[in-house]
Amino acid sequence: MSTSVPTNAANPFQASSSKIHPPSDSQQPQHPQLLELAIFTPFVGLDTEPPPAITTDALAQYAMSTTEPSDEPGITRLLSGPLADFELYSGQERSQWLLDIAHDICDPLCKRGSLTVWNEAERRYRDVIPADALIPSLYAYFLPPSTVIALTKISGRVGRSRTDATGNASTMADRVKGRDGRCWVSGGEYPLVNSHVCPKRMGDPLLRIVYNNFVQTPPPPTLSIYDEICGITLTKNLDAWFDEYELGLRLVSESPVRNSSFLLFYI
Q: What is the rounded CA–CA span in Å between residue 257 and residue 74?
């Protein structure tokens, strides 16, 4: 893995963008065992003000669009925590795990970025090799010059939704549980919940945008938020964590048993 600029420069990104500079002391992890993942702010498009209600594909497209990035240099922090936590979740995948997470947050469909890490002794960023062990430092996701991305967003909850016992929600729950038969994570068979990968509050138009951002093939014409592909079967305890973004699922490889095989990780 390499960047498109020479790594022997004092600032390897200076040749690509005058807005990108080495981190200041305030930008570097202050704790000796802290790992941080960031992206250079000039790569991040600014969010537009969403409409009060998103009822059409056009409104959904507008709500998820971005404007030109800020002219201010610097970094946007994505993840931060003790090195031991990152090592627990990355396991034998090591730096490849962190790169995959950076892809999911910044560029899930195209995966155009590379991962670099700040070397304090040399005062420069260096390329990260996927097999490298993670270290307590500042990792930066670097994209090709002039690339502008929109960061993956979380659909915030306002209050608690009421589970429908009839109608589309009930039909979806029956189909998802019938398809899976057990909890995706624990393998438990009771009590089970149809957990929504895309919250119902997002609606069909936003679902189609999310689908396009993560899947290479076009969405089915009749794709609905109540489609069974939008649900997975979890136990009640795991569903509560999943619902609050305390855990998530990451695609590892395609599986002949299920449409996709996922690996659990915590956020």
A: 45
